[in-house]
Specification:
This protein is α/β, with parallel strands linked by helices. The protein contains 13 helices and 13 strands. Helix 1 packs across helix 13, helix 6 crosses helix 8 and helix 7 packs across helix 11.
Length: about 350
C-alpha cells in the first residue's frame, strides 16, 4: 500500500515530466495516496508541478556557478538551510518512500530521507549519471535507469532497467495515421515532413542552421514543422510547407506526422523518439552538466539508432544530413528499427512497481 510519497528534483523538463508521470501512475493505482513534490525555489518545477495538479514546496538550494560570483559564497548557507528544511518536511509529512529524479533539490530531500531511514528510489534518466544521483545512490534501495551498463555509476546499489517515463499524451502517436496527421496540420501527405524540436525554449544552433538553409530544404521538397522557442523568429515568408511555431502544443500529432525528427539529445526526447521509432538526427546541447546529451546521443549513434551531428558542426552538416536521409528510405527504415530497441513502453508501470516493492 502506497499512502504518502515525496518526489524531489527538477530544474529541467527532462526531470519534471518523468516525475509528474510517476506521480500520475501512483495516483492511478492508489487514488487516496498523498503526493508531495519538493523542488528548488525559482526553478521551472515550481510552476509546472502545480499546473499538473500537485503540491510542491521549494527549497532555497542552488548549484555551484562555473564563473566567479557572489552566489557561490552563499552556497554553503543555502545547502545547510535546504537540508534543515528538508528534514522538517520529512518529519512532518512522514512519507512511505522518497523518490529522487535528479536536480539540486533532490540532494537535500534524499539525504533527509536517509537520515530518517525512509526507503529511497532514484530515477536516472541519462546514459551518464548526474552528480546528484551518483552521490545519493548508495542511500537508495533501488536505481531505475534508462540505459544498460550503468553499474559504473552505481556499483553498490541494485539497478533496474526500466526506461524513462514519457508524457501520457505521446502514446496517442502510436496509433495515429501519418497521412491523417499531415493533413490535419496542413501539410501535403505525399511529401516528407521533418519535425524540428529544440526543447521548450528552442535551440539557437539548430534554429540558425535551419534558417540558413530553409530555402534549400524547401526547394528539395522537404516540409518542416519547426518549433523555434520563444526567443527566435523564423523568416519563412512565402515558403509553402514550412511551418514555424514558438511552441507545439499537440506533440502527439506532430510526432505522428513526422517522417524524421531533428532534436536535442535530452533523455526525455530520446525516450519519446524510441517509443515512436522515429528516425532522428540528434544535435546535443553543449550547455548541460557533464555534457550528458552528447553521451546520450553517442549511446544511440554507436549502434546506428540515430545520426549524431555535433553542435559546432550543425551549420555545415545538419541540412546535408537531412537531405541525405529523407532521400534514402532504406536508411530511414534502419534508423527506425534500431532506435525501437531502446523503447521501454512500460517504463512508468515498472518504476511504480519498484516503488511498491521497496516500500
Amino acid at each position: 500500500m502506497v499512502r504518502k510519497v515525496i518526489i524531489s528534483g527538477g530544474g529541467t523538463g527532462g526531470h519534471i515530466f518523468p516525475a509528474v508521470a510517476i506521480a500520475n501512475e501512483i495516483q492511478f493505482r492508489y487514488p487516496n495516496a498523498e503526493i508531495l513534490f519538493v523542488g528548488a525555489q525559482g526553478k521551472m518545477e515550481m510552476e509546472k508541478v502545480p499546473q499538473a495538479g500537485y503540491k510542491i514546496i521549494g527549497l532555497p538550494i542552488a548549484g555551484l556557478q562555473r564563473r566567479f560570483t557572489l552566489s557561490n559564497f552563499l552556497l554553503p548557507f543555502k545547502v545547510l538551510s535546504s537540508v534543515m528544511k528538508a528534514l522538517k518536511i520529512v518529519n512532518e509529512f512522514k512519507p512511505d518512500v522518497v523518490i529522487g529524479v535528479g536536480g539540486y533539490a533532490s540532494s537535500a530531500i534524499v539525504f533527509a530521507a536517509s537520515v530518517k531511514r525512509i526507503p529511497i528510489l532514484i530515477q536516472e534518466q541519462n546514459s551518464y549519471a548526474g552528480l546528484t544521483n551518483k552521490f545519493l545512490a548508495n542511500k537508495a534501495k533501488c536505481v531505475c535507469v534508462a540505459y544498460p551498463n550503468m553499474q559504473t555509476y552505481f556499483p553498490k546499489t541494485p539497478i533496474v532497467l526500466t526506461g524513462n517515463p514519457v508524457r501520457e499524451t505521446i502514446y496517442k502517436a502510436l496509433t495515429a495515421s501519418k497521412t491523417e496527421a499531415k493533413t490535419a496540420l496542413g501539410f501535403d501527405p505525399q511529401k516528407p515532413v521533418c519535425l524540428i524540436i529544440g526543447g521548450s525554449l528552442g535551440a539557437r544552433t539548430i534554429n540558425q542552421a535551419i534558417q540558413a538553409h530553409v530555402q534549400l530544404l524547401h526547394d528539395n521538397g522537404i516540409q518542416l514543422l519547426w518549433q523555434t522557442g520563444q526567443n527566435f523568429t523564423a523568416n519563412i515568408d512565402g515558403l509553402l510547407g514550412i511551418q514555424a511555431q514558438a511552441f507545439i502544443h499537440d506533440m502527439a500529432t506532430a510526432y505522428a506526422a513526422a517522417d524524421m525528427v531533428v532534436s536535442r539529445a535530452g533523455a526525455l526526447s530520446i525516450s519519446e523518439l524510441s517509443l515512436l521509432s522515429k528516425p532522428s538526427i540528434l544535435v546535443p546541447s553543449p550547455n548541460v552538466a557533464e555534457d550528458h546529451q552528447t553521451k546520450n546521443a553517442m549511446a544511440l549513434s554507436q549502434v546506428q539508432a540515430a545520426v549524431l551531428v555535433k553542435d559546432q558542426n550543425a551549420m555545415a552538416e545538419l541540412h546535408t544530413q537531412m537531405l541525405s536521409l529523407l532521400n534514402d528510405p532504406e536508411a530511414l527504415s534502419q534508423l527506425s528499427h534500431n532506435i525501437a530497441a531502446f523503447s521501454k513502453p512500460n517504463a512508468i508501470k515498472d518504476i511504480v512497481t519498484q516503488i511498491e516493492q521497496i516500500i
